[in-house]
Amino acid sequence: MKLSKHIVLVFLTLLVSQITFAQVKFETKVSKNKLGINERLRVDFEMNQDGDHFNPPDFSNFTVVGGPNQSVSNSWINGVRSFTKTYSYFLAPKKQGTFTIDQATITIDGKIYKTIPVKIQVTAAVDIPKDPDDPNYIASENIHLVAEISKTNPYLNEAITVVYKLYVSPDTGVDNWQEIDSPRYNDFWSQNIDMQGQKVQTGTYNGETYRFLVLRKTVLYPQKSGKLDIEPLSLDITVQVPTSRRDIFGRRLMMQAHRTVSAGKKTINVKPLPEAGKPADFSGAVGDFSFDVSLSKTELKASESLQAKVEVKGNGNLKLIKLPKISLPSSLEVYEPEHNENVRTTLDGMQGSISDTYTVVPQYKGKYPTPSISFSYFDLKTETYKRLSSDEKVIDVLDGPLNNLNENSTTSNTVKQPVVLNKDQFAFIKTKTQFTSIKPSYFFETKLFWGSLLLPFLAIPFAILIRKKKAERDADVYGNKIRAADRLAKKYLSNAKKSLGQKEAFYVAMEKALHNYLKAKLRIETSDLSKDKIKTLLSDRGVDEETIKDFSSIMENCDLARYTPITAVTMQEDYDKAAKTISLIDKQAR
Fold first, then answer.
1. Please, what is the end-to-end C-alpha distance for the chain in angstroms?
2. Are 132 and 242 in contact (CB under 8 A)?
3. In angstroms, rounded to a whole number, what is the distance separating the alpha carbons of residues 477 and 475?
4. pLDDT category of residue 8 using cuts at 50, 70 and 90
5. Do residues 356 and 336 lie in contact, with contact meaning Cβ atoms separated by under 8 Å?
6. pLDDT averaged over every residue in the chain
7. Could you say which residues form the signal peptide (predicted)?
8. Please, are residues 72 and 24 in contact by the beta-carbon 8 Å criterion?
């Protein structure tokens, strides 16, 4: 009786353990539910059974600075299997507030499972512990982003420059960076200066020697007076920082860390232009300018044309200037001007010239004066308004009809011009025609009819030739096997190829492609096998040692690449090597 009770107890224990193991768990785990805006959040999506088609949530209020990283744990303890698969992400909050990590989904045994949403509270920045072995603390001390502004109290429409510099201590390395927040220049006219060919320089920051790189130079022209804000530039940087530990050769060990740096918001106090002495025709020009009105010719005949050019040269807000209109007598026909700009932007602001070119056509003989016009601007050197005026010029029309209303004409007589008829004036009217008769035609007499009739007979030899070539190709077993292997490699690596240049996404897709290939080729679940077991199975299938070695090295690269700097060239080499290896395995495996 006691023995039967023990048997029942053991049976119930095994049944409960099997039911417990069969229950699918898919949940979200976070490193903390409350963090400062300058801290990082780790999010793990963990499952106890392998699945496919994992879809993460939209981290709209966070910046993904790391991941997805995939890890698998598979163990047997006292005959009981324990399996865990995890997708990990590292997030940086974009702003303060309470946010939700939405549901992630995955397919396990044909069913879709979802996680439970998790709420995260983001507070103001918190103090980072001053731990000399903490890579985040070391990065915060060794990397600084600075915005240098040429002038903080400019006049309205006066040029100022903002130069963004990234300072890095000599013993710290920068792998890459990406912009989180780009500066917005509300109420400014702005233009970025070309930064090609920039080199790392050496300078001083807070009295210490740093290396620095100029990231951006921008010229700004304030468009309103008062206090104006320049939004900050923020970067997420991946760095290699030294630790207090050393290797067996005495060299410092380096650790990778992520650092979010910001240049901070800057405030500019813009002074309005003085009202005292402001000309009535002042249009907002600020700087140092010269003004000129020129004519391409001063003597010509009626119906000929000349160009009148109104031009401003100098240094200032040239692209924002409205040029004065030219004033000419009504007897001159004036066309709309052609606007030209020859302006370059440097750290000193806009330099060059702008002009309006008018085409002028006189209709009558006579002398026509061009009145003087003026241009006014605010001179930053003297902080006063200046007015420039053009010289008065005379356009002398030497030949043409006289205008009796023109007081400048030499005579007041009206001279009527004779009408000259052109002998070809009515040449377009056809008085004779050339008609030809049209003979009736029939379709069966055309080339199209005979071509359509003979084409099927001519196509028969080509069909026989194509069929023969197809039979020869079908008989080429080795060649077909090679072509099928190449197509298979491209099929599995298609997603990895789309992610070339994106390290994390590329190697996740590469690893998934290799696992899926083995699953299809060997008909196994790769999560159940170790690397040594995979090598044994490939060797049993007849795959040579060199190919197995290449396959193993690619798998190792997928694991190591997430934690080491990788270039686009290395990713392309790994992709080519993977395609070649899959093709070789498919050709060699029995």
1. 57
2. no
3. 6
4. low
5. no
6. 79
7. 1-22
8. no
Distance CA 388, CA 324 (A): 11
Phi, psi for 546 (deg, rounded to 5): -65, -40
Domain boundaries defined on the chain: 23-123, 135-270, 286-397, 478-588
Quickly name the fold that domain 23-123 has. Immunoglobulin-like (2.60.40)
Over its C-alpha atoms, the chain yields an Rg (Å, rounded) of 40
Residues linked to residue 86 through DSSP beta bridges, in sequence order: 46, 71
Report the distance separating Cα 451 and Cα 314, nearest Å. Answer: 75
> Starting from the edge strand earliest in sequence, which strands make up the sheet with 252-262, in order?
173-181, 234-246, 252-262
Residues 6+ apart with CB under 8 A from 561: 503, 507, 574
Give yes or no for a contact between 118 and 91, defined as CB atoms under 8 angstroms apart: no
How far is CA 214 from its chain centroid? 19
CB contact at 8 A, 207 and 160: no
The closest alpha carbon to 318, from 295, 276, 290, 294, belongs to 290
- The answer to whether the beta carbons of residues 189 and 220 sit under 8 Å apart is yes
* Range in 30-39, 265-274, 341-350, 488-497 the model is least confident about: 488-497
| DSSP letters for 529-559 | --HHHHHHHHHHTT--HHHHHHHHHHHHHHH
pLDDT in tens, 113-137: 999 999 999 888 776 555 555 666 7
Name which CATH class applies to 286-397.
mainly beta
HSE (side-chain half, CA atoms, 13 Å) at 194: 4
Tokens linked to 376: 């006014």
Q: CATH topology of 23-123 equal to that of 286-397?
A: yes
Cα(212)–Cα(155) distance, integer angstroms: 31
Task: Name residues whose C-beta falls within 8 Å of residue 426's C-beta, 6 or more positions apart in sequence.
Answer: none
Residue type, 53: H
Q: Is residue 372 within 8 Å of 326, Cβ to Cβ?
A: no
pLDDT of residue 442: 59
**Confidence label for 295 from pLDDT (cuts 50, 70 and 90):** very high
Strand partners, 315: 288, 351
Give the span between the Cα atoms of 104 and 59, in whole angstroms.
11
Report the alpha-carbon distance of residue 46 to residue 43 in Å, rounded. Answer: 10
Distance CA 281, CA 554 (A): 74
Count of residues for the chain?
590
Six-digit token string for 422: 């052109």
d(CA 463, CA 168): 71
- Spell out the residues 6+ positions from residue 436 whose beta carbon is closer than 8 angstroms to its own: none
Give the integer Cα–Cα distance in Å for 221 and 455. 74
The token pair that represents 198 in the structure block: 């920039």
The answer to whether residue 330 scores a pLDDT higher than 60 is yes
Architecture of the domain made up of 478-588: Up-down Bundle (1.20)
At residue 214's C-alpha, the angle toward residues 209 and 217, to 5°, is 140
When pLDDT is averaged across residues 556-561 and rounded to a whole number, the result is 74
